Amino acid sequence: MYLEKQKEVKKMITVIGSMNMDLVVDTKRVPENGETILGKDFYTFPGGKGANQAVAAARLGGNVHMIACVGNDSFGTELIQNLNEERVDTANVSRSSDKSTGIANIILSENDNRIIVVPGANYELSPQTIEGLRDVIKASKVVVMQLEILPETVKSVLKICEELNVPVVMDPAPAEFFDKDMISGVRYMTPNHYECEQLFGVQLEEALEMYPNQLIVTLGKDGVRYFDGEKHIHVEAIPTNAVDTTGAGDTFNGALAYAISHEYALYDAVKFANTASSLSVEKLGAQTGMPTKEEVEARIARLNK
Ligand code: RIB
């Protein structure tokens, strides 16, 4: 039992990133400038790319530690409680006394989403805090990040991970905060098609060839692609009954981190993450549809028949 526990600790996945309350409006169409329309529904869901990735990895059975900052308000309390219920360690989720919890304004319309994030307390997570958590990073098998926290905090994590030789999975979203200096510190980078274009300004194939086995691009209905150094690898999308695609990318990243921490070969890790992501879109809310490992394996087995 003790040995089992020790093995799990070694596989610790540390997510350093955002926690938001998602304020979701479901509407037939998006209003024009100056226009008021009536929406269909309104929901609140726990979200934030960081927290979503943490929940995705934890549901699969990962030993997940979250480093983040929320406000001293009811949203902050709810978000921490939600992570605790998902078995994510929140010992290093701090609370800001002067910034409110981050929120995301999400519009669901025409089978897609549009998201505006107000970072709030997410921007209180500082490089100094990260420096004080070196031991947590050192104990991690993999660190997962996105760009909804301060770019300087992201850079300090990358520097420490490089020094400690801890691999980083980075979802470079929102892409506008990505800085090319970040690439060298990242083991796997997982933009979607739009983000990839925004980041590298070249055709997909060209970008993939620049970063073999490092750049993994998620393409929604067109699956996932990467370049293995000799050939282009295409993992096909899995047909789904998509209800809400919010959090599909986060599920992909959380599942990829889980697979990497459990030493899957890259192709198997991508296939596993792609399958997890296909399951996640079948329910409303970023985290609601995130699958267990058994559910992912069952879908893979069904597809292999
Ligand atoms: O990736 C989806 C997430 O992006 C949402 O949960 C929202 O909070 C934003 O961070």
What does this structure look like?
With about 300 residues, the chain is an alpha/beta fold. About 35% of the residues lie in helices and about 20% in strands. It has helices at about 1-10, 50-60, 75-85, 125-130, 135-140, 150-165, 195-200, 205-210, 250-260, 265-280, 295-305, and strands at about 15, 20-25, 40-45, 65-70, 90-95, 100-110, 110-120, 140-145, 170, 190, 215-220, 225, 230-235. The chain has a 6-stranded parallel sheet with strand order 5-4-1-8-9-10, with helices on both faces. A hairpin with a 5-residue loop joins strand 11 (about 215-220) and strand 12. Helix 2 packs across helix 9 and helix 10 crosses helix 11 (about 295-305). The protein is globular, with a radius of gyration of 18 Å. Bound molecules: alpha-D-ribofuranose (RIB).
**Regions with pLDDT < 50 over 5+ consecutive residues?**
none
Going by helix content, strand content and strand pairing, the class is alpha/beta
Largest sheet: 6 strands, parallel
Shape: globular
Radius of gyration (Å): 18 Å
Residue share in helix:
25-40%
Question: Can you list the strand order of the major beta sheet?
Answer: 5-4-1-8-9-10
Binned strand content = 15-25%
E-strand count: 13
Bound molecules: alpha-D-ribofuranose
Which oligomeric state applies?
Answer: single chain
Mean pLDDT: 95
Task: List the helices and strands in order.
Answer: HEEEHEHEEEHHEHEEHHEEEHHH
Report, as a whole number of angstroms, the end-to-end distance: 36 Å
| Tally of helical runs | 11
